[in-house]
Write a structure and sequence with these properties.
It contains 19 helices and 2 strands. With about 450 residues, the chain is an all-alpha fold. The chain has a two-stranded antiparallel ribbon. Helix 4 crosses helix 18 and helix 15 crosses helix 16. It binds phenylalanine. The site of phenylalanine has 15 residues, from helix 1, helix 2, helix 11 and helix 15.
């Protein structure tokens, strides 16, 4: 019997889970979605999604992990009583591994861009050249591969040190660093001339832009951004101790994630408006981070090249940290699984995950260059990994988790876990059960149908 570690403090547990949630999703999708889909109106809808869907499902994942103190696969094995529900845990491990394989590619890019920013490589690049700069970089078979391996090795070092000495200690240092960077960048950005227009674009409520599709998009975004629907939060919760208040922890993580997402908007839009770029035509995703923004930073601080270097380096470093902490949580899902199911030492288990994910990651990365003609269902290998995990596996798992916790699990288990065996009052339990039973499965079902294109007739 292996002795299992726990997080040493409440703060460590919250920061680790927040580290998983705060990731690329906060920076490269949320701000754009908000700006283009009704500003404050979108934010209100997003927050409603977090309240109705995010918190209950996050609490369910916490409950399943903490109840069993096991890796995700075994957690569901134990609670499923030999029924097919046991496959849900395995799906989590599989999805976690799958996401890590392409997440580390982008993680590598953030490292490359941090170094480029720090060495002043963007200085003097004409505005229309940033696109080809990025294309040339990702199509090169070597540099992205080297950076992705470095990124995976960093993830590896933290995970192989274990929970308290690795993940918890790292989160306690790096998450406050992330918050400080976010605040500094927001302050710099809102002080730029023309920032007011950017803030107005981001926040002005425009309910006419909120269509059925936008609401479904907000739900999907909430889901991805909170790292729901796969083993991450369940695995982290298996290291929570018996006094961790699951409800409060979930609320804290959701609040941190949402604040960082909104603040990312305050970093991006004032700078975009400062240089007079058309915010409605910005790309989401990689295009925004690696093509539009380097130019925005260059232009915003044209007169003060030193500040341009400082601002852009801090920004890419921030994204790198956000990606790294999410990657660590993904890595831990599979590492915990291998340690407990194959009885390997953590060091070796982590090495297997690092090696396999790096190898598959390299294939994903090469799909921007030498392997770009290899298509799966008409998508490049990278896009396939991104699409299938984010749009299919996560919502499917999330829907099943809400049904499992709401309908299948004994209500007694829910009550015991949410109230810490009677230590807390947890009066909200009937509400959470109602949301898990009726609201979450239907809502996520609609998101799923939307993502596979069933509602393409909607605006
Ligand atoms: N929540 C992370 C983000 O916002 C992505 C992620 C999804 C990480 C699922 C782990 C698991 O980028």
């Amino acid at each position: 019997m292996t002795t299992r570690e726990n997080f040493g403090s409440k703060l460590g547990a919250i920061l680790a889970a927040a580290g998983s949630a705060v990731g690329l999703g906060n920076v490269w999708r949320f701000p754009i979605e908000t700006g283009q889909h009704g500003g404050a109106a979108f934010i209100i809808i997003y927050i409603i999604c977090i309240l109705l869907l995010g918190i209950p499902i996050m609490m369910s994942e916490f409950l399943i992990g903490r109840r069993t103190h096991s890796n995700t696969a075994r957690a569901y094995d134990q609670l499923s009583g030999g029924t097919c529900w046991k496959w849900l845990g395995r799906l989590g491990v599989f999805t976690g591994t799958f996401i890590l394989c392409y997440y580390c590619v982008v993680g590598g890019w953030t490292l490359q861009y941090t170094t480029m920013a720090a060495t002043g490589a963007f200085d003097g690049v004409p505005a229309n050249e940033f696109g080809s700069l990025f294309q040339t970089f990702v199509a090169n078979p070597w540099m992205p591969t080297v950076w992705l391996i470095i990124f995976m090795l960093m993830t590896h070092i933290v995970v192989s040190r274990g929970i308290q000495h690795g993940i918890e200690r790292f989160s306690k240092i790096i998450m406050p660093t992330l918050f400080i960077l976010v605040v500094l960048l927001v302050v710099c950005s809102v002080c730029l001339p023309g920032a007011g227009a950017g803030i107005e674009f981001l926040l002005k409520p425009d309910f006419s832009k909120v269509t059925g599709k936008v609401i479904l998009g907000a739900m999907g975004q909430a889901f991805y951004s909170l790292s729901l629907g796969m083993g991450c939060l369940c695995t982290y919760a298996s290291y929570f101790n018996h006094h961790t208040n699951l409800g409060r922890t979930a609320v804290n993580v959701c609040v941190i994630d949402t604040i960082v997402a909104i603040m990312a908007g305050f970093i991006i839009f004032p700078s975009v408006f400062n240089i007079g770029m058309d915010a409605n035509n910005l790309d989401a995703g990689a295009g925004l981070l690696f093509v539009s923004l380097p130019n925005v930073f260059q232009k915003s601080f044209e007169a003060l090249p030193f500040l341009a270097i400082l601002f852009s380096t801090a920004f890419y470093f921030l994204i790198f940290i956000a990606a790294l902490t999410s990657a660590i949580s993904l890595h831990e899902v599979t590492t915990a699984f291998i340690v407990e199911e194959m009885k390997l030492k953590r060091r070796w288990a982590a090495l297997i995950v690092t090696a396999v994910c790096s190898a598959v990651g390299v294939v994903c990365s090469l799909s921007f260059g030498p392997l770009k003609d290899v298509l799966i269902f008409g998508m490049s290998i990278f896009d396939f990994f991104d699409y299938i995990s984010g749009n299919i596996f996560l919502p499917v798992a999330g829907m099943l988790i809400s049904i499992f916790a709401g309908w299948y699990l004994d209500r007694r288990i829910l009550t015991e876990e949410f109230s810490n065996n009677g230590e807390l009052r947890a009066k909200y339990i009937p509400l959470i059960v109602f949301l898990l039973r009726y609201i979450a499965p239907v809502a996520i079902g609609l998101v799923l149908l939307n993502q596979v294109g069933v509602f393409s007739f909607l605006a």
